[in-house]
């Protein structure tokens, strides 16, 4: 969350012109600390076992994370952060778990139980209320005047 916030602040302050280059450079900057933290927490075993755990599903997941999630997702997100006030864009980050659940359902046939479905509906309702707060407020004021 701290890194996400820091990146959002950097995008708001610098307003990078070519977003893909910004994303690639920021991703390269993140790799060394992640490798170091993995080494601290797990030792060298994960690095030696990496090749033996590469299944087609794992390769697809890595490619999906690298290209679809990172390049497309962060490009869209950062362009929104660059163009609109943070208060308007930030609530849309609640769509992240919904996209994760939906992708798992579409790609890996993971079930969506009633609790997940109810959670998705509540999140979408919350976002809808937030996005439509001004018209709802206007409507409520108009009704109160009567």
UniProtKB/TrEMBL annotation:
Chief localization: membrane
Regions crossing the membrane: 18-38, 58-77, 89-108, 120-140
Subcellular location: Membrane
InterPro entries given in the database record: AA-Vitamin_Transporters, EamA_dom, EmrE-like
Membrane topology of this protein: Multi-pass membrane protein
Domain EamA: 1-130
Pfam families for this protein: EamA
Highest rank taxon of the organism: Bacteria
Alphabetical keyword list: Membrane, Transmembrane, Transmembrane helix
GO cellular component: membrane
Name under which the protein is recorded: EamA family transporter
Organism: Pseudomonas yamanorum
């Amino acid at each position: 969350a701290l890194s996400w916030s820091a990146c959002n602040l950097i995008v708001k302050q610098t307003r990078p012109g070519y977003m893909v280059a910004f994303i690639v450079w920021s991703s390269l900057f993140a790799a060394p600390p992640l490798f170091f933290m993995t080494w601290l927490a797990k030792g060298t075993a994960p690095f030696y076992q990496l090749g033996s755990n590469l299944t087609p599903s794992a390769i697809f997941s890595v490619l999906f994370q690298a290209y679809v999630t990172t390049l497309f997702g962060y490009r869209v997100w950062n362009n929104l952060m660059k163009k609109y006030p943070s208060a308007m864009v930030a609530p849309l980050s609640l769509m992240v778990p919904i996209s994760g659940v939906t992708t798992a359902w579409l790609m890996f046939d993971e079930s969506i139980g009633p609790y997940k479905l109810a959670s998705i509906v509540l999140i979408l309702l919350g976002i809808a209320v937030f996005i439509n707060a001004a018209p709802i407020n206007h409507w409520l004021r108009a009704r109160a005047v009567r």
